[in-house]
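Protein record
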Amino acid sequence: MPALSALALRCTRAVSRAPARWMLFFASAGCASETPAGPPTAAATVVLVTWDTVRADRVGAYGATTGATPVLDALARAGLVCETARAPAPITLVSHATLLTGTMPLHHGVHDNGGYRLAPESVLLAEVLADAGHRTGAFVGAFVLDAVHGLDQGFEIYGTPAYRRLGLPLQGAERPATEVVDQALAWLDGVAVDEPVLLWAHFYEPHFAYLPPEPFAARFADPYDGEIAACDAELGRLLAGLDAAGRAGRRLVIVTSDHGEAFGEHGEATHGVFVYEATQHVPLVLHGTDVPSARLTGPVSLVDVAPTILHWAGLPPESLPRAEGLSLLGQPAVDDARPLLFESWLPWHAHGWMPERALLWRGYKYVAARQPELYTLASDPAERDNLAAAQPELTARFARELVALEERSASPVGTARRAVSPDEDERLAALGYFGGGARSAVPHEAPDARTMLPQLAARDRALRLLWLGRVRMGFAGVLAVADADPQSEERQAQGRAMVVEAAALLRAQREQQPGDPGLAKLLGLAAITLGNFAEAVTCFEEHLAAEPSSAVSNFNLAVALDRVGQPDTARVFLLRAVELEPRATMATHWLAQQEVRRGEWGHAAFFYERLREAVGELEDELAPLDEARRQAHAEAAAAGLRIAPPPDWP
């Protein structure tokens, strides 16, 4: 498959970022239901943009008054707005698998982040369009959608964040929408204007933690709205870039989100556990050639996106032979007799609680909790008035229908489970996904998440405080070392207070749930951030007793041991970290420095060479260390030492 060089992947297209550029775009977009005619030779262009974690009610076209989405609102005024679109799950990978295959989770078999890979037997939209002659490019903003999860099928390029474990750079599990758009437009430079295109861009910003860039941080009191505004601006820049590339003619633009954010509704701080409307109701806007200016009502789902694109492209629906969605074009409304299923297996995988299942049908929403729930969404969109006890027969009918639909839909095309490497697990952790990994079948006695709300709230608060506090203190990712950028005394103090509170919450949870290795790891991270190195040693030892293959916990334990005066024992865990994760750059750097202090220049040069290999195409990241590497080689040569690993190298 064609691929961009490392240089091209990192380059920035010379498209103006001035607001006036995209202001011109969306001002004109509001005037007609079709984009301006392009040159006669221009081929069809399909643009799919997914914003992570955006509630429908934070978008102007859905009633928001914040002014955060002028570009998307202009598309909506001239295009098709799906008023009640839903995500199948409050999980990024699951929803995107549905969006790109036109099938529901019970069919494509992906049920959570991390431990799943879309089966090769699945047919993706990109494969169909590529076979039909389209150039296909995907550019995603976070590791949670990395190619390792199988969504790259059919894409000639699948751009993801450049990432190196254990430092150099510490971040990298996600990247800003500016970089996503830069890479997308750089790829488009190499595509002839007479070639049809499918371009998918994923913007991660609105996901926790909400840290909008300027000028949006200053403009919006709520940082979540600021993150959405940043996405909207990059949407405008992407479309302006397409215009500049000669793709302003026959074009279809679809903008949506994988799920919303709860913000405390039903006791959930963010998303992933429950399947209420706060996380399932998402924006879905279509704009372009042959797209009507209208608002579509009825039960619409992300499962409908791929069939809609095929319809617009003039391809038969059987091109996606297993698709369960319908085309949204030409629909005056969607019959509310159409059932939609919802699920989340994160409660089970991450906490050992019952998975969530729900059914939307004929205006009712049924939730299969330990105590069943039934809502009428037209009069109770916030799902506050549970009708299950008052209408037991109707509730029982919904329970039977849910099971029947699940049984009819449960025909996965292939196995989707996969093992998660230590490196991948920590990339997900850097994004805030502290999952529990694969578990066996759900036992009948598994608790309902609704009965675990105090524990959920405490852990959510601890995670938020720990993450935000470490950022303010100058830490990055999930490592036990601080970033190079100094922080102000005020930010340091703010961050320390947050981490102190997080540590207290985590200690209390450990007393209630002794033996939970995930809590031990989090408390160890808090302890080492605060300089409580003896406590950190105990915590990371406990975590490694349960999960010895965690490269990051091996590294963090090494740091804690070094700080309590046990450098030789620390070395054992540094070596283990590099053995588990060969591109563990920070651990490799520490080992190189140890050898320099011991005067073992041949061994030091060995580790510096491994460091260069680990950095790979990000060679410029190694530039600050090049002098040390050259010195190690020179000293080794002067002493007649071989460039070789130390005797204790595994």
